[in-house]
Amino acid sequence: MTRQKKQRRTTEMVILEKTPKKKERLTDPESYESRKQAALKKT
Fold first, then answer.
1. Beta carbons of 33 and 26 less than 8 angstroms apart
2. Could you report how far apart the first and last alpha carbons of the chain are, in Å?
3. What values do phi and psi take at 8, rounded to 5?
């Protein structure tokens, strides 16, 4: 009995949503980038 090599199978292609640009992320007050900028200004 021989071992079979694992095969990478994708049932459907995963389409990633378009990520927001940095300016858009900075305008959102809850985003990581805007909170980081606020913390840097505070110190």
1. yes
2. 66
3. -85, 120
The single-letter code of the amino acid at 39 is: A
Nearest in space to 34 (alpha carbons), one of 26, 43, 42, 22? 26
Segment 1-43, tens digit of pLDDT: 789 988 877 667 666 677 778 788 778 888 888 889 889 998 8
Residues 6+ apart with CB under 8 A from 35: 29
Tokens of 3: 């071992």
Name the one residue in this structure whose structure tokens are 């378009």: 18
Buried b (16+ CB within 10 A) or exposed e, 14-33: eeeeeeeeeeeeeeeeeeee
